[in-house]
Amino acid sequence: MNKYENTVTESDKNVDTFKIASKIRDLAISHNKLFEESIPLIASENLLSPLAKEMLITDFHSRYAEGLPKERYYEGNRFVDEVELEAIELAKKLFNVDFADVRPTSGTVANLAVLKAFAKHGDKIATVSLDDGAHISTAEFGAFGVRGVNPVFMPFNRDEMNIDIDNTKKVILNEKPNIVLFGLSLFLFPPPIKELADTIKEVGAMGWYDGAHVLGLIAGGKFQDPLHEGCNVLSASTHKTFPGPQHGILLASGMEENQYKKLRSGAFPGVTSNHHLHAMASLAITLVEEIEFGKKYAEAMINNAKALGESLYNKNFKVLCPDKEFTESHTIAINVHDLGGGEICAKKLEESGIIVNKNMLPGDKSAKHPDGIRIGTPEITRLGMNKSDMNIIAEFIKRILIDGIAPSIIKKEITDFKRSHNKISYCFYEGENPYKYYRLV
Questions:
Q1: Which one of 159, 177, 193, 223 has the minimum C-beta count within 10 Å?
Q2: Within 10 Å of residue 72's Cβ, how many Cβ atoms?
Q3: How far is residue 223 from each of residues 78, 154, 206, 269, 298, measured CA to CA in Å?
Q4: Based on the domain organization, do 98 and 159 belong to the same domain?
Q5: Which domain holds residue 254?
Q6: Is residue 173 part of a domain?
Q7: Phi-psi sector, 386: left (phi>0), alpha (psi -120 to 50), beta
Q8: What is the pTM of this model?
Q9: In this predicted structure, what is the pLDDT of residue 166?
Q10: 318, 337, 339, 333: which is closest to 404 by C-alpha?
Q11: How far apart are alpha carbons 435 and 421 in whole angstroms?
Q12: Mean pLDDT, to the nearest integer, of 358-369?
């Protein structure tokens, strides 16, 4: 039989395909219900506002717009062009930068665009190792491997959960990397960009910041300002502390025009074709909302993370960095080795209605069986929870992981608590239940 020949049999044709489609729809509704009834504590997830979500079901979803606004390879883009130009100007205003590109379709794609623009095969890039909290983009099996660059690991102070400044200066001077990358997946504290800026300049390297996790904190002026502290380019996803769609963004300042052109070319045609116009429009809405609400939202996320860390610590959890108030971001990390490890604890919590992720801690050898769990406050803060709610959540976690309360006993309490916090905030049109998706109920 020719390999291209249709192999569908008559019995296959009798399958009720509509039932399969209905099943998929039912699974989507069940997923919505799971989160409507659970406390979401994933540090890398967030919720769209009603207005931003609406953009995802517009006709933008069905269209192509390769190239730059006003210079497209497709017709029918005059309204797309206006939206994209607005998004670019909004991003430049919000982050006080000279350059913005809203075409990357994810944070990793944004990272690949930077690598395409500024790194050659065999170049050295200074970064943090995976077990010290780096993102998988920096691994050989990630974006670094795709581009064929070589990581040079910056020494990490595991007690401080941050880059070791003095020893990193020595590494930069000895290795002379082409790029120094600041960015983490376990992002508790601002990395020391200012302290390393002169050393980076001395070896002629570029400063690059992966702000995927903390973009919303940067937008709200509550973390650090990497593009005015010594970095040249910032790449990020737009759906973590920044409460937008699953998309990406590139920001830059203080570079020459030919470098901006390289960055644009890295985005397209380098690593994207069409840039998911519905998500780009949703990003534009989120940029507007962040200009309006971002400062208060960022402050609330950090306050909630500190309060949750303190409450868990007082309940005998091994929360990292108690001497530094646990975090300066939206994230806390807990060593649960003595409670069975990150994998077991994360599963127990999910069964009970609390969703976290297992996470490597410094010194861990396995990403599948780490000692840690990572907890974040973007989504619960978006739902209006405040510092007083953090003690309630901490008590739930204690009863599950330390007291050993069975999921069947505690789950209803957690569901009732969550259902009283299902109204989205820090956006236009506050109050809609974010888990009730269009056409699904």
A1: 159
A2: 16
A3: 37, 21, 21, 33, 9
A4: yes
A5: 52-287
A6: yes
A7: beta
A8: 0.94
A9: 98
A10: 339
A11: 11
A12: 92
